[in-house]
Amino acid sequence: MCGACRPVPADRRLRGPADRQTLARAVESTTGLRTRVVIGQWTVSTSTGRQVVCATPEEVADAAARATGGDASEVLARAWAAVARNGPRQAASG
């Protein structure tokens, strides 16, 4: 067992799958590391193929910063800024 199926705490700052994807894209564009959304979590992949499974945005930023030698707080700040730019979702009218 790899341990990737651990319980994932809900993060109220993320309003759904679109926000989770936006956060992943922002980390990817900031660090150059492949960052993907998986069921309830994210993966951060290095150029050597090593993958880290992350349950929270903070873990994503930490994993990306460790892999690149960057600053986790800067990675996280840019990711949250990207999520905030998406703005609130409006229900589809129909």
The total of helices stands at 3
Distance between the termini: 45 Å
Q: Helix and strand string, N-terminal first?
A: HEEEHH
Strand arrangement, major sheet = 1-2-3
> What is the beta-strand fraction?
5-15%
Class from secondary-structure proportions: alpha+beta
Roughly what is the average pLDDT, rounded to an integer?
A: 86
E-strand count:
3
Approximate helicity band = 40-55%
- Radius of gyration of CA atoms, rounded to a whole number: 14 Å
Shape, per Cα inertia axes = globular
Largest sheet report: 3 strands, antiparallel
What is the number of independent domains?
1
Low-confidence stretches: none
Spell out the key features of this protein.
94 residues, single chain, three-stranded antiparallel sheet, 3 helices, alpha+beta
